[in-house]
Amino acid sequence: MAARSCFRQLKLSAQFSGDGGEGGDTPPSQQFAPLASAFRRRLVVGVGAASLVALGANFCGCTSFLLGLAPEAGRNLRLDVLYPIGGYSRCVEPDEGFEFLYPAKWVGDQTLLYRAAGRAEMERSLDPPSLSDPLLRNPRRRNVNEPVVAFGPPGSTGELNVSVIVSPVPLDFTIEAFGGPREVGEAIVRTITGAGKRPGVTGTLVESSLREDASKQVRYYLLEFKVESPTFKRHNVAVCCVRPGKLFTLNAQAPESAWPDVRYDLYNIADSFSLTA
């Protein structure tokens, strides 16, 4: 259609500029003015459409760059779910009701994805499951200690990652019943190390603090601790909080040797963790 319109304009221009015609003395700039105008309009529309496509596809990171000029505005709109902002993407888990930021270069834990695919396949099976199958009691996860989500660098061994576990608890369960952040942190370290019953495994609580969200009436316990054994040295940053019936535990960990390079990433992950409405 566009080509036909241009051809018609060219034909009309040629008729008016023919020998002996009424427009024989018309300058070329006027003869082709309609064609030039149409070309400019189509050029503007084409460039605009191409720009929208480039922004939507984050071509060469242009969308992330533009959003990075006003990162808080983009994050408030949750655009970092689609496009990385400031080097971070957002994970939103609507079923369990939480969200957090993680490095944009990290990917979903493949083991967790395979388990999820296996569960989906079992749920699609035409055969009725066994009455003793634990999936009947909790079809979402085989084990309450299995993470809901997990992310880490591609190709890594799992020593550097972040994961979130959601465990069922009584409706009247409160984390404050176990004390403040320091008491809870020390209790977690004792549990991990087996309270001295695991030879060679030691733990140290580095720091503990409290972050409160008055609007949602949620208290977040932020914990930093180290665990060492003859075979590994690990640095952890964790967040614990409670919503009626659920205990949320985010754990971001790294080998002690990598801690200086990734500690700010792990701090940002922990600081961004929050429960959604």
TrEMBL record:
The keyword Membrane applies. GO terms for biological process: photosynthesis. It holds the Pfam family PsbP. GO terms for molecular function: calcium ion binding. Keywords: Membrane, Transmembrane, Transmembrane helix. It comes from the Eukaryota. GO terms for cellular component: extrinsic component of membrane; photosystem II oxygen evolving complex. InterPro entries: Mog1/PsbP_a/b/a-sand, PsbP_C. This is PsbP C-terminal domain-containing protein. It comes from Kalanchoe fedtschenkoi.
